[in-house]
Structure formats: C-alpha cells, structure tokens
Amino acid sequence: MSNTAQNSAIVRINSLLDENSFVEIGGLVTARSTDFNLQQNETPADGVVTGYGVIDGNLVYIYSQDASVLNGSIGEMHAKKIANIYDMAMKMGAPVIGLIDCAGLRLQEATDALNGFGEIYLKQSLASGVVPQITAIFGNCGGGLAVVPTLSDFTFMEEKNAKLFMNTPNALAGNTEEKCNSASAKFQSEESGIVDFTGAESDIFAQIRQLVTMLPANNEDDMSYEECNDDLNRICADIENCTGDTSILISNIADENIFVEVKSDYAKSMVTGFIKLNGVTVGCVANRTQVFALDGNLDKEYDSVLSPQGCEKAAEFINFCNAFNIPVLSFTNATGFEATLDSEKKIAKAVAKLTYAFANANVPKVNVVIGKAYGSAYITMNSKSIGADIVYAWPKAEIGMMDAKLAAKIMYPAAAAGVIDEKAAQYSELQSSVVSAAKRGYVDSIIEAQDTRKYVIGAFEMLFTKKEDRPGKKHGTV
C-alpha cells in the first residue's frame, strides 16, 4: 500500500467501492525526473492511486488523483500508471473509473508529461466501445485534461468545487468567471452537455454505483440482466397523462420504477437513460414537451420538435447502447424541427446523426408512438422505415405528413372554411391515423397506453437473439 492511505484520493476510492474490496497497484511508483525542484519533492504513488475493486460485486478498475502530491499534476509515471490500468481493464473486460483532481501537466517534466497525456488519450480511444469508461471530476480538470472526460462514456461532476475547462473563464474574450463561470458543473451540464450527472460528492458515488449496476462489463458481456421481481404484466394506469413528460412515463414502465437518466440537465426536450425491463438493461430515448418539478408543478414546456442539441444527445446515447449491445426503446412525439436562425446552422447535420444512429444500430429496437409523429421528424425517431424491429402506437397517436388541417389548406388553398374542415377530417382518417399506418405495415400493433410495459417486455424477449447482417465496411462516416 502506498503512503496515500489517508488522503482524499484513497478516501474517494473507498467511498465508491464495496467495503474492503480495493486492491492497489503501483503504490510504490514515484517520479523518475529530478529536474528543477523535483529532486527535493516527494511524489508518493506519483500523485495517482490506481488499482481494482468491486461495485455491488462487479469488477472495476479505478484511478484517483492525489491533489496533495504536486497538485495531482500528470507526469510520466503518473500517466503510465493510468495507462496500465486501462490495459488491464481491456484484458479483463471491466469498466474503468477515473476520479479527477488535477492541476494539469507537470511543468518540470515537459515533453515526458505531454507524451503521458498522449498515452492516456490512446488507451481511452482503444477502450472506447470495448469497456465502459466513467470519469468523475472533484477538483480541477483543465486544458488538455478536459479531453479525458470527453473521451469517456459518462462524466460526473461535483457541483460546487469541481472545474472543467479547456480555457479558463477569464481567458475567454469578453468574459470573466463572475459573468459566466464556464468551468462550473452547472455550465458544463446545462450548456455544453459534457457532464451527465452532477451533485455533492456522496451523491456522485451513489450515482456511479447505480450506473455501474445498469451497464454490461464490456462489449461481449451478456450478463447485464438480473432477476426481476416486478410484475411483467403490470398495468401502468394513467400513463397516457405522461405523454408530455416522458421521463415520468419511462419510470412508470421500468422494473421497480427505476430510471437512470443521462444528461438530464441538457437538451431537456430529449430524454435519454437506462431502465431494466424483466431484469434486462434497456436504453431509452424519448421526445419530451413538458418538464414537471419534484413538487408536481409544471416547470417548463417545449414544442414537439427535434432540436440540434437533442438530436446529438440522443445519437451519442444510441451509439453507446449499440456498442455495448444494449437494446433501444424509443417513444415518439415529434412534429418537426426547431425553427430558429441559430438552430438552422446545425439542425440538418444533427438530424442526420440521429437518423444514422438509429439506422446503424443493430441491437433490438422497439418504438412506441405516443403522440403526434409527423414528417421527417417521425422517420428520424426510430421509425419502421429506418430499421425499428417493432413499432407500437397508442390509440390517440397520429402518424402522417403533417397536421391534417394544414394539409387541407395546402391542397385546397381557395376552398371555404367548411370545405377545409371536411377535407381535414378525411385526410386525418385516411393519412394521419394510426389505423391507416397499421394497415400499411408501418405500425405493428395499436396498444392501450396502460399495457405498454407488458408489450415492450414481450417484444424485447422475442428480439433477444436478434442477429442482423450489414454491408461490409470499415465504419460509417456520418
């Protein structure tokens, strides 16, 4: 054991892992460089505690930076210890968790430290899609180190003292930390979307533990399921009232009503996260038009449109699910695309990314149309057209080109109001109803909202052994 036994780095590890499960690796490693003032400075464990342990019985590899040793700065041996943990994790097929509290590059080691950064980036890149990577930030994470959480799959950030930045707030032209603290957890979770979860230190440990129990250990792990004690045929009464706030809807259908939402503070018109259905981990993606606060009052409302941020958030999440063979369940309620000058700069590309993510994913995919599904937005949201295996629709849902009355006005621009109403009714029946879509095979079944849980569980059970051949290629380019 290194002499870091009582510092914050080891305390954090022990707070996260199962009791007495941590085994340290490389505790006696110290800096090799003696340039400048390093000769007279002790560097116990070279400022990072590394090893392995378990979370709820699941093997994980972990590193935790020690800010009491040269401010946790990264030097040659510090980086090699982290790289070694990644090598072991990929051999054994287990997640890597990094606890960040670091001043950045160690100036005294210059190019050796820079090379160390590169080694960490390389290991993270190689591990991407092989084992889950989780980063939690408790202190500074700036400059080149800010690439580490963005190369990870999930990022946690302590809400008060942690700082995440490529450039400090005061280095941004026209900005100061007092004006806009772009390094704060609030900014990075709500504005940039880099951070998935925020909270107090103890909250973060609990959130990481919960997430780890939801995820497979690696991309070949088929053990991401557990015994389900919830009724598989449970009726979800009043679920139709959750069409607006789909985070509540998803919680309702989940085993034991547990929903681990990802990036909950970012692009709130799109919901992403994990649930268990019959004990199997499922990734959920849903459009959202309402957000209710904890007190039950309506907090925010959104148009039923796809935004650039929401599309990118969902696409990134679907890509993760596909990489780790996690089935995808979507809930569609989208009538078009966000129409602002700012969104127009990115919306087409973002929608393309989301469309590609759904179409490219070869895991089991189930879609439930719960509201209005119009035009290209409907196609993008995991429709049958782009590869959904099973599509359900609630009886009051609508599927079509556009709102029936608007369609009637376009087709009969000179007609009287009565004629418009008549044609709109006909259009709705013939072109926008779920029955019409079902007759054409675009919807597999029309189900009562309260029966959603049992139907999607049944669909995923049927799809459990899905195999799908795709054209041979190195990778896509979208």
TrEMBL record:
Limits of the CoA carboxyltransferase C-terminal domain: 231-467
Keywords: Transferase
PROSITE patterns: COA_CT_CTER (PS50989), COA_CT_NTER (PS50980)
Annotated ranges, domain CoA carboxyltransferase N-terminal: 1-165
InterPro entries the record matches: AccD/PCCB, AcCoA_carboxyl_beta, ClpP/crotonase-like_dom_sf, COA_CT_C, COA_CT_N
GO MF annotation: an example: transferase activity
Gene3D superfamilies for the chain: 2-enoyl-CoA Hydratase, Chain A, domain 1
Pfam families, per the entry: Carboxyl_trans
UniProt-listed PANTHER family: PROPIONYL-COA CARBOXYLASE BETA CHAIN, PROPIONYL-COA CARBOXYLASE BETA CHAIN, MITOCHONDRIAL
Protein name: Acetyl-CoA carboxylase carboxyltransferase component
Organism: Lachnotalea glycerini
